[in-house]
Amino acid sequence: MAEFKKVARTDDIPVGKVRGFEIGPDRIVICNTGQGFYAMIDECSHESLPLSKGRLKGNVLTCPHHGARFDVTTGEVTHPPAIVEIDTYEVKIENGELFVKID
Ligand code: FES
Protein backbone atom coordinates (compact mmCIF):
# COMPACT_ATOMS: atom_id res chain seq x y z
CA MET A 1 0.00 0.00 0.00
CA ALA A 2 1.29 3.44 -0.89
CA GLU A 3 2.21 5.66 2.03
CA PHE A 4 3.98 8.96 2.53
CA LYS A 5 7.70 8.59 3.19
CA LYS A 6 10.01 11.38 4.31
CA VAL A 7 12.54 12.31 1.64
CA ALA A 8 14.23 15.59 2.56
CA ARG A 9 13.85 18.99 4.10
CA THR A 10 12.39 21.52 1.69
CA ASP A 11 15.44 23.77 2.12
CA ASP A 12 17.63 20.93 0.81
CA ILE A 13 16.16 21.64 -2.65
CA PRO A 14 16.45 25.33 -3.65
CA VAL A 15 14.15 26.92 -6.24
CA GLY A 16 15.05 25.79 -9.77
CA LYS A 17 17.00 22.76 -8.52
CA VAL A 18 16.63 19.04 -9.04
CA ARG A 19 17.77 16.37 -6.57
CA GLY A 20 17.80 12.58 -6.77
CA PHE A 21 16.95 10.35 -3.80
CA GLU A 22 16.77 6.66 -3.09
CA ILE A 23 13.76 5.46 -1.15
CA GLY A 24 14.24 1.76 -0.56
CA PRO A 25 14.46 0.20 -4.02
CA ASP A 26 13.02 3.28 -5.74
CA ARG A 27 14.98 6.18 -7.22
CA ILE A 28 13.04 9.40 -7.42
CA VAL A 29 13.78 12.93 -8.52
CA ILE A 30 12.39 15.99 -6.72
CA CYS A 31 12.07 19.32 -8.55
CA ASN A 32 11.46 22.68 -6.91
CA THR A 33 9.87 24.90 -9.57
CA GLY A 34 9.31 27.82 -7.22
CA GLN A 35 5.57 27.16 -7.53
CA GLY A 36 5.86 23.83 -5.71
CA PHE A 37 7.76 20.58 -5.26
CA TYR A 38 7.19 17.74 -7.73
CA ALA A 39 8.35 14.12 -7.60
CA MET A 40 8.89 11.72 -10.49
CA ILE A 41 10.63 8.42 -11.04
CA ASP A 42 14.33 9.09 -11.65
CA GLU A 43 14.36 7.31 -14.96
CA CYS A 44 13.93 8.86 -18.38
CA SER A 45 11.40 7.03 -20.54
CA HIS A 46 13.74 7.29 -23.55
CA GLU A 47 16.63 5.00 -22.52
CA SER A 48 15.94 4.52 -18.79
CA LEU A 49 18.83 6.77 -17.73
CA PRO A 50 18.66 9.00 -14.61
CA LEU A 51 17.02 12.42 -14.80
CA SER A 52 18.44 13.75 -11.54
CA LYS A 53 21.33 15.60 -13.24
CA GLY A 54 18.88 17.27 -15.59
CA ARG A 55 18.19 20.98 -15.93
CA LEU A 56 14.96 22.54 -14.65
CA LYS A 57 13.49 25.61 -16.27
CA GLY A 58 10.06 26.57 -15.01
CA ASN A 59 8.04 23.35 -14.97
CA VAL A 60 10.19 21.64 -17.61
CA LEU A 61 12.98 19.18 -16.80
CA THR A 62 15.46 18.43 -19.59
CA CYS A 63 17.07 15.00 -19.56
CA PRO A 64 20.88 15.39 -19.48
CA HIS A 65 21.44 12.48 -21.87
CA HIS A 66 19.63 13.21 -25.14
CA GLY A 67 17.55 16.29 -24.37
CA ALA A 68 14.03 14.92 -23.89
CA ARG A 69 11.87 17.30 -21.87
CA PHE A 70 9.14 16.56 -19.36
CA ASP A 71 6.55 18.67 -17.58
CA VAL A 72 7.35 17.86 -13.95
CA THR A 73 3.82 18.73 -12.81
CA THR A 74 2.30 15.93 -14.92
CA GLY A 75 5.17 13.74 -16.18
CA GLU A 76 4.13 14.45 -19.78
CA VAL A 77 6.69 14.62 -22.57
CA THR A 78 7.07 18.11 -24.03
CA HIS A 79 10.01 17.39 -26.36
CA PRO A 80 11.40 14.20 -27.99
CA PRO A 81 13.23 11.82 -28.22
CA ALA A 82 11.13 10.45 -25.30
CA ILE A 83 7.54 9.68 -26.27
CA VAL A 84 6.17 8.09 -23.09
CA GLU A 85 5.21 10.09 -20.00
CA ILE A 86 6.94 9.51 -16.68
CA ASP A 87 5.28 8.35 -13.45
CA THR A 88 4.84 11.08 -10.88
CA TYR A 89 4.29 10.83 -7.13
CA GLU A 90 2.11 12.81 -4.76
CA VAL A 91 4.08 15.20 -2.54
CA LYS A 92 3.16 16.77 0.78
CA ILE A 93 5.01 19.26 2.95
CA GLU A 94 4.76 19.32 6.74
CA ASN A 95 6.83 21.55 9.01
CA GLY A 96 9.47 22.10 6.32
CA GLU A 97 9.79 18.39 5.58
CA LEU A 98 8.95 16.85 2.24
CA PHE A 99 7.13 13.51 1.94
CA VAL A 100 6.42 11.45 -1.17
CA LYS A 101 3.62 8.90 -1.50
CA ILE A 102 5.24 5.70 -2.67
CA ASP A 103 4.65 1.93 -2.42
S1 FES B 1 17.77 8.92 -21.82
FE1 FES B 1 16.69 10.80 -21.59
S2 FES B 1 16.59 11.63 -23.57
FE2 FES B 1 17.65 9.75 -23.82
Would you kindly provide a written description of the structure presented here, covering whatever features stand out?
The chain is an all-beta fold. It has a single domain (3-102), classed as Rieske Iron-sulfur Protein (3-layer Sandwich), CATH 2.102.10. Helices cover 0% and strands 48% of the residues. The chain is built from no helices and eleven strands. The strands form three sheets. The protein has a four-stranded antiparallel sheet, with no helix packed on it. A hairpin with a 4-residue loop joins strand 3 and strand 4 (37-41). The protein is globular, with a radius of gyration of 13 Å. The N and C termini lie close together (6 Å). FE2/S2 (inorganic) cluster binds next to loops.
CATH hierarchy, class: Mainly Beta
The end-to-end span amounts to: 6 Å
Q: What is the overall silhouette? A: globular
**Counting H and I runs of at least 4 residues, what is the number of helices?**
0
Q: How many strands, which pairing sense, and closed or not: the largest β-sheet?
A: 4 strands, antiparallel
